[in-house]
Inverse folding.
């Protein structure tokens, strides 16, 4: 993972503290709506690995919803990991660790992998990176994977963000990973915008 991207998120954290803006979301409401869609992958999602966990806000969402299974957040920004471990030190079922999504092995023994916002930043070889992370996550998960991404079906594209074709990603997953694939492109994360991202569920 690039040092430039690490520095970008470190600056956001220094500027915004423990907030949705620090992990590059517009506001906490849109962040929560994404979390709700990810959780709809199954009635019970069990233990979770949160790839690109940021500041562990998905963990907070799970606990607020009454879900108390083991949670492991991984990220490549050390400031995020240090802050999150200190914040949740009293919860023995919550842990955070640094991990390079391309170079490192993924944790085993967890039911669900969740990948939220990881594919949004433009970087060299976005498509290759996205497919590699999805493949590694599905291999490591015991039951299922939920991930989201920005869609090419939009009226405007931010030059700093990466937009993928949901149909191509669906086909990649269907042909290479599992026959059990769900594509969602109907939900809103902001009331003032049409759907501009999508979520895919992969099942073992």
């Amino acid at each position: 993972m690039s040092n430039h991207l690490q520095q970008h998120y470190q600056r956001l954290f220094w500027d915004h503290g423990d907030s949705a803006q620090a992990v590059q979301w517009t506001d906490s409401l849109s962040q929560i709506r994404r979390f709700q869609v990810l959780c709809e992958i199954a009635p019970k999602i069990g233990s979770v690995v949160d790839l690109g966990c940021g500041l562990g806000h998905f963990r907070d969402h799970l606990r607020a919803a009454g879900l108390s299974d083991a949670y492991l957040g991984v990220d490549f920004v050390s400031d995020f990991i240090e802050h999150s471990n200190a914040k949740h030190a009293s919860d023995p079922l919550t842990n955070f660790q640094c991990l390079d999504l391309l170079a490192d092995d993924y944790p085993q023994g967890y039911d669900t992998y969740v990948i939220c916002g990881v594919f949004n930043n433009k970087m060299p070889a976005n498509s290759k990176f996205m497919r590699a992370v999805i493949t590694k996550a599905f291999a490591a998960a015991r039951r299922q994977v939920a991930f989201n991404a920005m869609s090419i079906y939009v009226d405007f594209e931010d030059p700093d963000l990466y937009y993928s074709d949901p149909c191509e990603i669906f086909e990649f997953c269907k042909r290479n990973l599992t026959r059990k694939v769900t594509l969602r492109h109907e939900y809103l994360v902001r009331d003032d915008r049409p759907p501009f991202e999508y979520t895919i569920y992969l099942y073992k």
Observations:
- Strands lie at 48-51, 71-75, 94-98, 112-115, 144-151, 163-164, 180-184, 197-203.
- Residues 151 and 197 are 5 Å apart (CA to CA).
- The mean pLDDT is 93.
